[in-house]
Amino acid sequence: MRPEILNPLFEPVSSLSGIGPKLAKLLTKLFHGEDSASGAVLGDLLTHVPHSHIDRRNQPTISEAIAGEIATFRVYVDQHFPPPRSKPNLPYKIAVHDETGELDIVFFRGSGDWLAKSMPVGEVRYISGTPERFNNKFNMVHPDHMVSEEAFAALPLVEPVYPATAGLSPKVMAKAIRNAVDKLPILPEWTERTLQEREKWPDFETAIHRLHFPRDGLDLDPKSPARRRLAHDELFAGQLALALLRNQIRKTSGKARKGTRLLQDTLISAIPYTLTKAQQRTIQEISTDLEKPERMLRLLQGDVGSGKTIVALVSAVQAIEAGDQVALMAPTEILARQHLQSLKQLCDKIGIRIEVLTGKDKAAKRRETLAALETGAIDILIGTHALFQESVVFKTLGLVIIDEQHRFGVHQRLTLGEKGDATDILVMTATPIPRTLVLTAYGDMEISKLDEKPPGRQPIQTNSINAERIEELIERIRHAVTQGQKIYWICPLVEESEELDVMSATDRHEDLTSRLGNFVGLIHGRMDANQKQQAMEDFKTGATRVLVATTVIEVGIDVPDANIIVIEHAERFGLAQLHQLRGRVGRGSQKSSCILLYYPHLSETAHARLRIMRESEDGFLIAEEDLRLRGEGEVLGTRQSGLPGFQLASMEHHADILEIARNSAKLALINNPALSGQEGEALRVLLYLFGKDRAVRMLRAG
Ligand code: ADP
Ligand code: MG
Predict the structure, then answer these.
(1) What average pLDDT does range 659-679 have in this prediction?
(2) Is the confidence at residue 166, as pLDDT, over 90?
């Protein structure tokens, strides 16, 4: 049961004044994802970190403005430029100036009436926001504030700014958060006293106040004691949950899965290629684990295309030889079917039965599959997480293989081993996750690395070019198209807002269509599934030759004959993302190229990122460089700097706290394995606060 003291924080956000069902839904989507069953609660708002702040002491003139840096300007309003009636999707612009220069304020879907009233021509206004440079002129998209002189005088000097979300104005967000902070109860201290004293950390309540009511910029500095404390709280909760989970897994002993190797040998000789050294080594590592009587918990890391699937199959066969069944879990149904296609032939050859179970199966077929599974007639069952519904019963499930691609959130799923008898678990990931991240996301897992690609892959030629040469580039694209090539054109990331991403993609699509003709396609996250499918089909069949896309194509899209990828505003992307995007080409037999189109002026780190991309295609090296660069305080590419699934802790600033949190968790469990007494209660509060209920329940089960 959740400690009662936390109840106020688990009230739905709709209990706040000003948050109706529509906004509540947007907040749920923001905090819990598109198809979450549980609604957003007040606690979610507390941990929503401002991405920056307005310090109204920073009041440069327009000529002194620095692109990308929040500032407040005192300006005169010159003229309004509403979009033409026929094109309501174009932005609404307002031209302003001060004594030193001009600036355009830009609104997407702005209400003309409201803008005319709040920005009267000829008046003085204070505007706060992030200036950006476009075509040698400053503009500011959706300012955080546009106020008169009197109103400006009444504003606080320092104000947190929250990431923009489609449909949610920063002001509404700020108000909701302030109201949520008011409901925060006094919680028991869960941090170990000596640690807290050594680090000079405030209590949780104070730390939350500093975050949302900063006294100055320093309070929002990720290195401030308050921010470090919050990062520790979050990481501590995560590490504690993982440690509880691991204790539980260890408690149930495993089974030694040793086979005759007859089937395995037959399989290996049936594979139409030679396994790489890395594949042979990882197969051996997994095999040794399977043979041990303890339960296996191993992570197989390998870049896209490194050949993880066959490693999974060879390992599966060992479990099958030992008399068990294997579940192979894919992130999507499409990938589940793809696995079946690529494995079935080999399985048929060696006489093992492999099936797929998806939501699309007809009832009769599903019944048949389930029955065959229960009698043990099926050796390997592929599916999505739906495999772990109650209706799916294995005869003897011995090995679960989770193909996570580059998604996280596995640790809940590690408990899936519950379906079998002392089940071994193998997680495969395409993300070359650095060790520190592995620890946060998965806890102490053994790691196998596929650090070598199958021979014969064509390298991808990577160049970076200045956007001043965009005309040249477009000519090159025109030429490539006439030669029958296919091109992805990836549009820039715009400050944390999907809506603006879409806007830049539609603009670029229009632009390229007018220059190149009608064979330019478009795909973005706001299209519905059918439209996306159609856009992909058109590109696959060649009906379109250039595909303008937002980063929706980052995951899993496979068009082997697309061989050029242009990434516009490449300097805004993180290294890992650039690498994933580039991985969309170089999948066929022809030579491929990746063009990183950048806009000056590049920061030093942006420079370094582009250089690394030009020099390397090695996912592991890129991941390490990525971490190193971010460790040096990269501001751009903030989308990636957070730890996945974490709000308060970031890799960039809090890597050292991860180690502290691991120790905190270890110590807490050594002293108090059942989390009993008053101290234990405080730890339970912490776990519930960060949504680690499952770990607490496990305690009870043990
Ligand atoms: P991933 O690690 O991304 O899951 P896959 O397992 O899908 O990679 O393998 C990518 C492709 O490489 C497949 O077509 C597979 O058949 C092929 N492949 C795997 N291992 C080898 C190898 N040792 N030699 C040649 N081709 C291989
Ligand atoms: Mg794969």
Answers:
(1) 91
(2) no
Q: List, for residues 361-388, the tens digit of each pLDDT value.
A: 889 999 999 999 999 999 999 998 778 7
Closest C-alpha to ligand 1, atom 9: 307
When the pLDDT of each residue in the chain is averaged and rounded to a whole number, the result is 85
The residue nearest atom 24 of ligand 1, judged by CA position, is: 454
- Choose one of 268, 269, 271, 273 to mutate for the ligand 1 pocket test, by most ligand atoms within 8 angstroms of C-beta: 273
- Using 50, 70 and 90 to split pLDDT, how confident is the model at 551? confident
Which residues, judged by CB distance below 6 Å to any ligand atom, belong to the binding site of ligand 1? 273, 275-276, 279, 302, 304-310, 430, 454
Q: What is the DSSP string of 190-241?
A: -S-HHHHHHHTPPPHHHHHHHHHS-SSGGGG-TTSHHHHHHHHHHHHHHHHH
CB-side neighbour CA atoms (13 Å) of 346: 25
pLDDT on residue 58: 82
Say which DSSP state 182 is in: H
% pLDDT > 70, the chain? 87
For residue 223, which amino acid is it? K
Looking at the CA of 404, name the nearest ligand.
Answer: 2
State in Å: Cα 454 to ligand 1 middle: 7
Looking at residue 98, its pLDDT comes to: 95
429 C-alpha to ligand 2 centroid (Å) = 8
**Cβ-contact 639, 574 below 8 angstroms:** yes
What's the per-residue H, E or C state across 394-451?
CCCEEEEEEECCCCCCHHHHHHHHHHCCCCEEEEEECCCCCHHHHHHHHCCCEEEEEC
Q: Please name the residues in contact with 517: beta carbons below 8 A apart, sequence gap of 6 or more.
A: none
For residue 304, the ligand closest to its alpha carbon is 1
pLDDT at 580: 80
CB atoms inside a 10 Å sphere around CB 676: 12
